[in-house]
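Input structure tokens:
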């Protein structure tokens, strides 16, 4: 703002000089011995008699208003310069500091068709053990893909478990509804769904974005009773009558910006920080 205010002072000096010029050239209603900004007046273009003081006060008021407007514009430009759209800089596999909320408390493993559970306490970005004896090491939210200016995030591993019995269509419906109701942060995301086979197929089988070292359900039906799941090595298999993890996918709004990289609170210091 120093530049703006300096320019303001320069222009004010010029304006004052012009007014003094008017005074010296004529049209003055008071003698020079009475010369003060309040005591000197001149006839303006509108034919009205105006004192130098009133003219300067009016000029200052207008200029200060313009400075306030310029300060707001500069502030917005500075924000745009430092905050860029996440979709323009993020890459597949990057971690993003997305907040899906916290669990109210731990729950037991699900044991019947359509049941969810096995989650711990705290941040939903954490991972839990379903078929495994210990919780997977991967956690947080990662960029799955960028499509039409929108960033798709997927849980790095599995935030909870799901029991698929023998009703694939019911499982498909319940997985979709669970992702939308539990992992959607309306400030940043516009929709959520359970990861499907097509999304996994688009990732190289050796990539830990796909082969997480765990076994997780997909929302894609296979046959009469089974749904697909991804094995620890990233390959596809199908199953029924078991409890595995599932991976929610959230679709961020196209207006999501990033302020740079920092901690996501889940052990990643290079996660993209997001804002609106």
């Amino acid at each position: 703002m120093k530049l703006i205010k300096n320019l303001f002072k320069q222009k004010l000096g010029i304006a004052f000089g012009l007014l003094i010029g008017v005074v010296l050239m004529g049209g003055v209603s008071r003698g020079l011995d009475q010369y003060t900004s309040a005591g000197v007046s001149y006839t303006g273009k509108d034919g009205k008699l105006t004192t130098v003081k009133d003219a300067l006060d009016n000029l200052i008021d207008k200029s200060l208003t313009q400075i306030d407007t310029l300060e707001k514009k500069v502030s917005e430009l500075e924000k745009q310069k430092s905050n860029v759209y996440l979709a323009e800089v993020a890459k597949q596999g990057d971690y993003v500091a997305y907040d899906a909320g916290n669990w109210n408390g731990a729950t037991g493993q699900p044991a019947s068709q359509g049941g969810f559970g096995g989650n711990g306490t705290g941040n939903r970005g954490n991972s839990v053990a379903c078929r495994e004896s210990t919780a997977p090491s991967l956690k947080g939210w990662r960029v799955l893909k960028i499509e039409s200016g929108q960033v798709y995030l997927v849980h790095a591993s599995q935030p909870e478990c799901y029991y698929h019995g023998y009703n694939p269509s019911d499982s498909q419906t319940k997985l979709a509804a669970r992702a939308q109701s539990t992992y959607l942060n309306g400030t940043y995301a516009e929709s959520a769904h359970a990861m499907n086979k097509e999304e996994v197929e688009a990732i190289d089988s050796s990539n830990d974005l796909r082969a997480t070292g765990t076994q997780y359900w997909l929302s894609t039906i296979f046959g009469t009773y089974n749904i697909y799941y991804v094995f620890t090595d990233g390959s596809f298999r199908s199953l029924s009558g078991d409890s595995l993890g599932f991976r929610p996918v959230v679709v961020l709004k196209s207006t999501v910006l990033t302020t740079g990289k920092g901690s996501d609170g889940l052990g990643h210091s290079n996660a993209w920080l997001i804002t609106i």
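The longest strand covers residues 141-147. Confidence is low (pLDDT under 50) at residues 18-35.
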